[in-house]
Amino acid sequence: MRYLRALPKMALFATITFALYVLAAVGSPPVRWFGGSATRWRARLFRLWARRIAWTLGMRVQVEGRPPRAPFFLVSNHLSYVDVVLLASRLECSFVARSDVAGWPVVGALCRAANTVFVDRSLKRDVPRVIEQIRGAMERGVGVVVFPEDTSSAGREVLDFKPALLEAAARSEIPVCYASLSYQVEPAHGSARNDVCWWGPMTFADHCVRLFQLPRIAAFLRFGDEPIRHADRKVLAVSLHRAVVQQFRPVPS
Fold it and tell me: Quick one: the chain helix, strand, coil %, rounded to 5?
């Protein structure tokens, strides 16, 4: 039965995603020909896609604080792939993601079209390349979002921040914005911790079905008051983690 409830939303998701992907592919060359930025064009389409998908999911977003204006460097706690939809629906941005995401069906193609920076975190020599891509995206006027926990969690707490991907900000003492996010669903329909958060041994396909069968999702997004900067990436990671923890709202079980 839950598969039947999820099917209409999944079909709408596929339709919206395909349409925006084609528009991004077809529209980028003319944008370049007329002197525009294809990177900014794709970022704006990605934001449009995220807003439509948030509506499809029945996501009701409560925002606190002032969202940063592009270009920016922002970190956030990480609960699910749904975080991308939530943040992109409110920001003109690209994301830093694990390299294996590039090979995922549909999602990988979408991420590539949306200027995602892919990193192989098992290879330390890959970090300098990623740092340059982050810097390049910001120079082209696009915000960059990093999830420094290195993995998604069940939302009980904010995991420690890994400092490696903060090197780009630390080296140039770029001010780093921060945000915290959380979710809630009506208990009669499911559990935010199990049906929205994606963690542990959960499989992607099964989780998608459970996510799409939810009638509504309450999403809470809070932006920090003042950016944080520091020349030492480890100190920067600790300071940002402390700031996110202070405003984090745990996901109910």
Answer: 50, 15, 35
